[in-house]
Amino acid sequence: MAKKRTKKHQKKSGLAPGSVIYTGEKSDKKLFLEVFDYTPEEYIEKELNSIEEVFDFKLTDCVSWINVNGLNHVTEIEKLGIHFNLHPLVIEDLVSISQRPKIDEYEDYLFVVLKMLYHDADENIINEQVSFILGPNYVLSFQESEGDVFGAVRDRIRQGKGRVRTMQSDYLLYILMDAIVDEYFSIIETLGYKIEDLESDIFEGSIEETATKDIQELKKEILKVRRSIFPLREVISRIEKDESNLIQQRTKTYYRDIYDHLFQVTENIDIYREMIWSLMDMYMTTISNKMNEVMKVLTIMASIFIPLTFIAGIYGMNFDYIPELHYKYSYFILWGVMIVLFIAMLIYFKRKKWL
Amino acid sequence: MAKKRTKKHQKKSGLAPGSVIYTGEKSDKKLFLEVFDYTPEEYIEKELNSIEEVFDFKLTDCVSWINVNGLNHVTEIEKLGIHFNLHPLVIEDLVSISQRPKIDEYEDYLFVVLKMLYHDADENIINEQVSFILGPNYVLSFQESEGDVFGAVRDRIRQGKGRVRTMQSDYLLYILMDAIVDEYFSIIETLGYKIEDLESDIFEGSIEETATKDIQELKKEILKVRRSIFPLREVISRIEKDESNLIQQRTKTYYRDIYDHLFQVTENIDIYREMIWSLMDMYMTTISNKMNEVMKVLTIMASIFIPLTFIAGIYGMNFDYIPELHYKYSYFILWGVMIVLFIAMLIYFKRKKWL
Amino acid sequence: MAKKRTKKHQKKSGLAPGSVIYTGEKSDKKLFLEVFDYTPEEYIEKELNSIEEVFDFKLTDCVSWINVNGLNHVTEIEKLGIHFNLHPLVIEDLVSISQRPKIDEYEDYLFVVLKMLYHDADENIINEQVSFILGPNYVLSFQESEGDVFGAVRDRIRQGKGRVRTMQSDYLLYILMDAIVDEYFSIIETLGYKIEDLESDIFEGSIEETATKDIQELKKEILKVRRSIFPLREVISRIEKDESNLIQQRTKTYYRDIYDHLFQVTENIDIYREMIWSLMDMYMTTISNKMNEVMKVLTIMASIFIPLTFIAGIYGMNFDYIPELHYKYSYFILWGVMIVLFIAMLIYFKRKKWL
Amino acid sequence: MAKKRTKKHQKKSGLAPGSVIYTGEKSDKKLFLEVFDYTPEEYIEKELNSIEEVFDFKLTDCVSWINVNGLNHVTEIEKLGIHFNLHPLVIEDLVSISQRPKIDEYEDYLFVVLKMLYHDADENIINEQVSFILGPNYVLSFQESEGDVFGAVRDRIRQGKGRVRTMQSDYLLYILMDAIVDEYFSIIETLGYKIEDLESDIFEGSIEETATKDIQELKKEILKVRRSIFPLREVISRIEKDESNLIQQRTKTYYRDIYDHLFQVTENIDIYREMIWSLMDMYMTTISNKMNEVMKVLTIMASIFIPLTFIAGIYGMNFDYIPELHYKYSYFILWGVMIVLFIAMLIYFKRKKWL
Amino acid sequence: MAKKRTKKHQKKSGLAPGSVIYTGEKSDKKLFLEVFDYTPEEYIEKELNSIEEVFDFKLTDCVSWINVNGLNHVTEIEKLGIHFNLHPLVIEDLVSISQRPKIDEYEDYLFVVLKMLYHDADENIINEQVSFILGPNYVLSFQESEGDVFGAVRDRIRQGKGRVRTMQSDYLLYILMDAIVDEYFSIIETLGYKIEDLESDIFEGSIEETATKDIQELKKEILKVRRSIFPLREVISRIEKDESNLIQQRTKTYYRDIYDHLFQVTENIDIYREMIWSLMDMYMTTISNKMNEVMKVLTIMASIFIPLTFIAGIYGMNFDYIPELHYKYSYFILWGVMIVLFIAMLIYFKRKKWL
């Protein structure tokens, strides 16, 4: 992914800063616009066809959530940005999907970028950029494509459950971010399972060939998740300290709650990271132990039969005068000697605990 | 455990923030309510049947300790929270047992979450969440289930031992937290024993098969204890700096004492952590040393008998003209040569210190 | 490179501080002077022959970009420095190419040093020092030699694209620095590819001989890139906090954008650094795995044939009385025994998963 | 030791905070009380029999050093504490020998705890807790038992050497602490010797069996010393910043001197720590090198004699028609061939540098 | 060296703080006093015989550089110190050569201690302590013995080159420190060469026996240089922030220049440190690779000849009825079979890439 991202960025380099260029994969996905406009008493939910219809919601007294899906529709997003008086760099960042999580404070709005992580149908981790513009009575959200973790938020607005309908746009931003952060728990949970599976596979020695590769892959996955989540801590803590009037004092308590959740997530990631490192060590000792076992088999076999073969060799010599050859019981005596030797060896190796 | 915790959290995601949901294991444990209400002169100790009986103790002039066991009784706890004017997020956190140790300061109460660690009958580490609400003249404590480390605290209140009956609720909170932190010492002591046992087992080579697993398990246990204890340092240090009137100046000295204890605990944990890492290294060298020993045996056996076998092979050949075969003493001379070779080899290996 | 750099520095030691000495490789490259002078309406682009012609551009009302290539022309650069009232240490640093990225604030100009990294035709990383002097209405840039990453900047000035022609010199400095930082993405992208190539080479075991060397080389390359880029973060963050009037408030937003980009770059470098360290571990386990495989082959061969050879040896002995020798089917029975032994061994090793 | 300490602490848990309990090993050592009382002109040195005799020295105008040995005499120390108006927690800490080095500032005295390290007769490191109470004109010192590093301090008071008799109690505290810190140098010097001895033992390969254990023991010793010394840095730096009048401005220069010494000590400890880690690595390579040597011997022996034995085996076969067997010089030619093969092998291994 | 230093310190412990004791190696080197006294117009250079002659230079209006060589002349240095009103601890530190680099600010002078590193004739790193006293119009410098890196500074004063003669004593201190820091570049350059030499030696496998030792020695050397240089960064940064009038504002720019140089040096040291750690890893893989090669030779030889020997053994048996023995072409057929087996083996090992 690192590869892809930098490649994308590459394409942009050489352009004027402020050029509004979509850096994601090209696609002809339709622009999908969705608006929630609500007061404590009532709410409107609409799917819009053109970006111009959105403009009206800027000035309503109600709280409006305008959700824009499809960052490839650059022109429309630029229009929207201009209508909402966004700084050129903000508009540029909205469609440039390789941002780090960050917050930029402007005079009459906050610009927040973060990463929405969720599993797709095949249990792969999807990493999608979500940007928010928090204005006095609206929240704009921008997603790469449809499909998100905001289902429960929509339900809550519709049903007037919880506090959401009675609060301002800053609380709306909070529940949207909270939904994203909650999903992180599910992501790291899966990572945790993977580590434990790998661990038992290594202990049982069942994945000899791919162990190193699996460990390395998991390590990279953790590094990527870490990179998507860690910077968000600073974002939240800057929201808490925000001095504009966009975030009200009473809402800050809620943001602190997100902060605590994030802390838990990042703490777990760091523990997983430490565990994955020791997996490598563990695997190394497992290999060494196996080699030890192999060597022991070789040594036992060789130590027992090489001397016996030597003895047999002695009496296979063709010297004219080997007195023992002519005694009647020599052969049987020799067998006796060899069996004694054999048993002595076995006892010796038993004592050394190699058997 | 990490697995379980995140799973639990999972179940909650999608719900409105502020939803009061018990995240621990379902159980039909009864709600157990216990109240201590005391002045320097006298004290009342009661077990209550319903949450409503607790309400009266909010307004008494005495210091009240209300101990609530059984976080699965969500409705009752919610009622209690509303009666004591707790913030919705606090009530939510009370029953959500996957919190990090933290302190939240509200206008007229402090909310403290920490982890109570103790050994159960089977010497397993039990990790239970305890929350405290410190009000002007009461302390509410919330535990997952009965069974705690507060026995001595109860005795002290009953017997009026020490300063507790003459002090305010902030001192009560202190002795409760002190009891928990004191138990940490016992926990890390056990960890210390386990490390030393493992260390000598590895030195003696008696646990070849399970060593890696044992080390890994111990490492995880230390990481978990660490995670439960470390954040508490910041909690205590924020209590010390607290500017509300809930914590009196003279009590802060006592909290500093807890802080010092915590520092000792965490210092020890970090030392154990470093030691467990070197255990892995030690184990690795132990394996390598053993392999060395195995290889030496093999090399000595092979080096001694392979040349001798070769010599025997020579005189087992069937050439028509091998002059040595016909000398009368050839056989005995050969034995002599072989014995000399054998001894020379032994001396050689002795010199190399392989014997 | 470390070697070269310190060597160069060496030559200077013993000289008075403030001595203006070129520390790069001697060369007879011509001095190349280029000037862009522009207003929103029009622009002049000139190549100049002598340093004196530059002087006039100091006082024009337009924004001037004076680009000086060829730091070996020390005398001319010194003249230029004196004309622009630069501090002696600044002039010294301009031609001393072993500077760390840094910013020095003087009363009426800023002095910024950074490293321009780009790939040459052979995909080697070129590390060239670029210094900027930002004055009220001019930017001086100093490069070791011709060839840079500013092509797009020139085009933008010529075509009046973007905001550049309408902004002041602080914005010009921004787009120059932005061009350099954008190029960093391409550099680390290549590093990422190299690591992944190395990783798959190691997994496939195809580079046995050179793996250690390749890893070590890559590690050094990353360390060098890191050293060129990391200090720049502090430079940018000091520009943002600058309190002189040279950087206008509205331009600072743009510098913050560079800062975010840099953060992404450095984050990636650190991830690559961690990955290269685990490559070494991976390689180590790969070696050990191979040795295990070698040992298994040896052990299997030896364990099967040594006992069989012993048996053959027995019946090669020349004792007068070996009853078995004279039974008619002995030889065939023996073959039977040996084949059974052989198969038993194979099954044993199959069970141990060595086959 | 960690084990012992926590065990001791254990015994206390469950008791009321503020309970004055001696946590060291039980012993019936007598209480030993020593007082120095001095002015620039004269001094009194006394050994006292009962704690009450000490009380008078609190109010003298002279500087008094009251040295209490024998922390098992809890009742006496408690009396002393009450007479000197010490906080209950201070009295508790005085006799609890498992404190971290720390400083607690009270209104009219400072309470300092540190660790006195010195070698006993058998070169073991003795780790004894020393506490100081610094009052306006007295210093109380508390030691576990007789035997300390203050001999030179006593001499200096007796002889009026240096500045001690002309300075206040803060200077007395300084020279006592300085004496303790000076002893640290001797301790880490010994650690340094031990590391270097171990290092050369490992290089010479003379301690195969115990190397891992020795390294581990040394590592633990360093960790323990580190833990005793590191927190002291913060103690001293807080003394320097102290704003009470107990530490005069002119004395602070002296404390800064201790601070510098401590810095040197801790720096050395960290270097030793790093060196002991690389000892482990070194030892690992030493083992591997030895195994290499063992393997080479085996390989050389086997590679030379196995083919020769094969050749001998060929001509030991009993086929009716083996033409070579009947040529007259076959045997001698074969010897020639074998000697040539032997020498070729030797040259081959020589070239590979295995010989 | 660590050993020696602590040993020296040892000798002092037990003495009163402030005792002026030379802690270096005893020697009867003569005291060497050198004075430069200059104004922009003229300068005096003198070698003095007695310490008293120095005293006059304290009050001249010119800038004076008084260079004292020979710290064993304790009495003279004490006299000098008293004449210049130095604090007793400063005088003590002047002759105690085991100081860390540090700066102490006193009312009317600065006391700076640093380490002068240079190569002696045998390319060993000499580590000599240099102390400076910066007064309003003089700089005192104290060296252990003659021989320093100040040659160029002397020349510059004599020839009036650069700014030195026109500036105050703070600039003199700067060029002296700059000369020392410049020499550090040469030191770390040599370290860099050593690492690269070691690296190629290890790659080529030419230093099997001493590699571990060489790596360890180099590691120690880097640790020592690091310890001498690192603390200096803080010294310089405190000079920059100094608020006394001893360092003028315009000179601070120069000190910042030293700071930048130091940063480069320390950055390089840390890179070298990281590289030396990976050298150890590299060496380890080199050993393992060699062992792999050894094992392969053994395995190939054994796998080829052990089965062949077995076959030969079969037909060496003395059974009465072995039909094959009597066929005419048996022997030649057997040779054919063995050659085919031999070639099959070779192909097998070729395919496994062991050949």
Automatic annotation (TrEMBL), chains A, B, C, D, E:
Membrane topology: Multi-pass membrane protein
Membrane-spanning segments: 297-317, 329-349
InterPro entries: CorA_cytoplasmic_dom, CorA_TM1_TM2, Mg/Co-transport_prot_CorA, MgTranspt_CorA/ZnTranspt_ZntB
Gene Ontology CC entries for this record: plasma membrane
The organism's place on the tree of life at top rank: Bacteria
Keywords (A to Z) from UniProt: Cell membrane, Ion transport, Magnesium, Membrane, Transmembrane, Transmembrane helix, Transport
CDD domains per UniProt: TmCorA-like_1
Compartments reported by the entry: Cell membrane; Membrane
Pfam families the UniProt entry points to: CorA (PF01544)
GO MF, one annotated term: cobalt ion binding
Protein family (similarity comment): Belongs to the CorA metal ion transporter (MIT) (TC 1.A.35) family.
Functional summary from the UniProt entry: Mediates influx of magnesium ions.
UniProt xrefs under PANTHER family: CORA FAMILY METAL ION TRANSPORTER (EUROFUNG)
Name assigned to this protein: Magnesium transport protein CorA
